[in-house]
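Quick one, tokens below. Sequence please?
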């Protein structure tokens, strides 16, 4: 019978999809410092090789596998490569994510389709490939990178919202199916806005420069939260105050949260610089990968986004007070 426990002195066997930049790259490098055996996957092999070189320098073994997670054949081949190279999989981090910013009707339907395929079907393909390995060995941790988008819808990112809401539901349903396998874990990670190049790399159909409002998380902080799940798996990990507040506000009033988000984005795009529209990395991998941080925490960008955010928060607070007064008036009738 296969043992369901791992000796503490054995290196972790870790698969990371979306490992060519951002949170995926940072997570790979943190696991590397622990001497893990790594299998790194993404569409950009050249960037993966750069990341693998850094991981090997930190003390890990690292194998690169070109993988498009929207192709279930690719994810099965990735699982086979991991099992044959490392003898099993202790942790699989499903980290692929792309986005398209633009009004729903201004964004091509094929772009919406591919965002959903990457962010939802891609994670389902990962799980379908990884879980048989984990069930056969009697243990393992599967980590879904979601985001605050799993709690609250984002205007101008309809497909992204659909994919993240769907991914949260997928994880919850999958955990329920695995209740009789207590050593096989499905974990979700919900960070707020993170300082990676993801927004800049995504599709842009508003024709305006895109950034994130403060506070913007350090991607190394998110990566550290993921690494901790290897030792102490838990169903839900929320990283950053923005994600916590967003979850709370959406629970109180989804409609109000959506209106505040829409006001914020309208105000931001009115002030943002014009840039060409593009499909970004939705269909083809980014060329400037193998970079963890996106430069979104610079003082100038924080000040500009913060000014817009402050005005919108004030509007949202006023609207919230009006809503509360209306509800109070109805309750006393």
């Amino acid at each position: 019978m296969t043992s369901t426990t791992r000796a503490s002195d054995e290196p972790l066997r870790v698969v990371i999809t979306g490992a060519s930049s951002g949170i995926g790259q940072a997570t790979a490098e943190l696991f590397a410092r622990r001497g893990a055996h790594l299998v790194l996957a993404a569409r950009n092999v050249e960037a993966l090789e750069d990341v693998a070189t850094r991981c090997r320098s930190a003390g890990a073994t690292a194998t690169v596998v070109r993988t498009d997670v929207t192709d279930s054949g690719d994810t099965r081949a990735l699982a086979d490569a991991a099992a044959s190279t490392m003898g099993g999989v202790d942790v699989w981090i499903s980290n692929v994510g792309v986005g398209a910013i633009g009004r729903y009707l201004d964004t091509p339907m094929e772009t919406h389709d591919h965002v959903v395929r990457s962010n939802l079907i891609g994670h389902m393909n990962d799980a379908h490939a990884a879980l048989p390995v984990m069930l056969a060995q009697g243990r393992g941790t599967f980590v879904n990178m979601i985001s605050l988008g799993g709690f609250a819808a984002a205007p101008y990112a309809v497909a992204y919202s659909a994919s993240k809401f769907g991914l949260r539901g997928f994880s919850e349903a999958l955990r329920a199916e695995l209740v009789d396998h207590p050593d096989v874990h499905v974990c979700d990670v919900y960070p707020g806005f993170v300082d990676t190049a993801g927004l800049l790399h995504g599709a842009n159909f508003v024709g305006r420069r895109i950034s994130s409002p403060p506070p913007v998380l350090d991607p190394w902080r998110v990566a550290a939260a993921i690494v901790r799940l290897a030792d102490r798996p838990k169903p839900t990990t929320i990283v950053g105050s923005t994600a916590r507040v967003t979850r709370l506000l959406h629970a109180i009033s989804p409609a109000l949260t959506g209106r505040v988000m829409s006001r914020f984005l309208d105000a931001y795009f009115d002030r943002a610089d014009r840039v060409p529209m593009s499909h970004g990395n939705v269909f083809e991998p980014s060329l400037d990968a193998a970079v963890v941080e996106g430069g979104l925490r610079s003082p100038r960008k924080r000040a500009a986004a913060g000014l817009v955010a402050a005005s919108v928060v004030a509007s949202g607070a006023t609207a919230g007070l009006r809503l509360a007064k209306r509800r109070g008036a109805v309750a006393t009738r």
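Residues 12 and 36 are 5 Å apart (CA to CA). The chain has one domain: 13-331.
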